[in-house]
Amino acid sequence: MSTKASMNETPLGQIETILKDLRTSFKSGKTKPLSWRKKQIEQLYKMCDEQRELFASAANTDFARPITETYLYDCGVIRNECIHALNHLDEWAKDEYRSDSLAYATMSKYVHPEPYGTCLIIGAWNYPFNLTLLPLLGAIAAGNCAIVKPSELAPHSASVLTTMIGRYLDSSCIRVVLGAIDQTHALLKGDIDHVFYTGSTAVGKIVAKTVAEKMIPVVLECGGKSPVYVADDANIAVTAKRLAWGKTVNCGQTCLAPDYLLCSKATESRLIPEIIRAWRTFYTDNPVNSDSYCHIVNGRHFERLKKLIDTSKVIYGGEADANRNYISPTIMTNVDENDKVMQEEIFGPLLPIVTVQNEHEAIEFINARSKPLALYIFTSNNNLAKTIINSTSSGSTCVNDVIFQIAPPSLPFGGVGDSGLGSYHGKYSFDTFSHHRSVVYSATWSEPILSKRNPPYTKQKTAFMESLVKARRNWVPLPRIGGFWFWAFAALATAVITRVLVRGFRDDKWEF
């Protein structure tokens, strides 16, 4: 299957103009009102609802992606996140007033979420709409202008995104740039305030290095080799179905896909037949002709995956067709850490199995490698699951399922270490694209107290101020007081403090 469709790249000379236009729009204050943000989110929902067939058709043309997968995992997820944002945006955007100890009770303190300005969103091809529009949703919710750069590896999807974003969203604040390395480099060097990148760890490091020179925040959503540990007490029938689904949905081209499997030899012998049975149920004995089975995105990735297949260790699958960029669901056994398939993120329908004696050996194996984006554990023993969770580190963890930890908008999605930096989804998207600004109003009537911080310094002044600001354990923060009761408290406090200070002067107890 060919995906070498031409894509109308944005001329490099236009990028500076686009960025200037977005900067002008942001400075005008157009994106800050919640009414504008909500309208754009409603339009984003409408776009994914009305154009889901067009989106699905484009992804199918790019890499034979099943229509249902675009409906569910791109358009469906985006629509749900839009509704979640609309339901909670008023709450997210509120100033968060903070209470504190008595020393700071005279201050009115709050955290004010404000937009960064112009945000660059670099999307990925494997979920061409989800991984581009969900970050865009966060940027809009936080009140930013945004420039979107879809992946050139899914050209039909990128072209559709360009047309539909221009049709549904405010083009004075949200723009799309098409292209590859040159366009991306020009954008990163341009006048931007925040970068959100989804893709490989190797490219993520380049992005991070580039923006570090400009001291702007960056979120990196990368991947890695997400391990699965199947304990001997796991429900094998359920485990097999869920692993079979997670390994081959989108043909394994999912950053959260289970990468390799750790289990005992006994569990392996019980698990493999069930996984094979599940795949045959999903895709028949000939997945190449199944409308439910996706293909590899292009020839380069096809050849990369083909080289990872050790035919001497394949016990199921292993078929490949370069004309269609097709690789069948494949299981490899007797795999060790030195095999090619264990040297990089697979990002395809290959399932290598590494046998271990127990969970302790599995933990050692996992910890000897880079921190993964996800860790999957299948067991009937919650204490065992907690032991593994507490002994390892990963971007997320799911027990007795795979990938689905990404679904609830109440949870953050992001990596750790080589698997990424920062997170999003739900309120975490809003927070990611917001600068949380501390704001303090200091009362002028508190000057009799605060003036003790002023030079010339004396031991008495120092002792007084140290005592005033000293933190105390188990201190209950004072509630925020407003209106009549605030001023009543302020008047009383002023009277008491003034009385003490005046008496101190008269008795020569304070040598100020």
Automatic annotation (TrEMBL):
Phylogenetic placement of the source organism: Eukaryota, Metazoa, Spiralia, Gnathifera, Rotifera
Protein name: Aldehyde dehydrogenase
TM ranges: 484-502
Domain Aldehyde dehydrogenase: 14-439
Family of this protein: Belongs to the aldehyde dehydrogenase family.
One GO cellular component term: cytoplasm
Species, as recorded: Adineta ricciae (Rotifer)
Keywords: Membrane, NAD, Oxidoreductase, Transmembrane, Transmembrane helix
GO biological process: aldehyde metabolic process
Active-site residue numbers: E221, C255
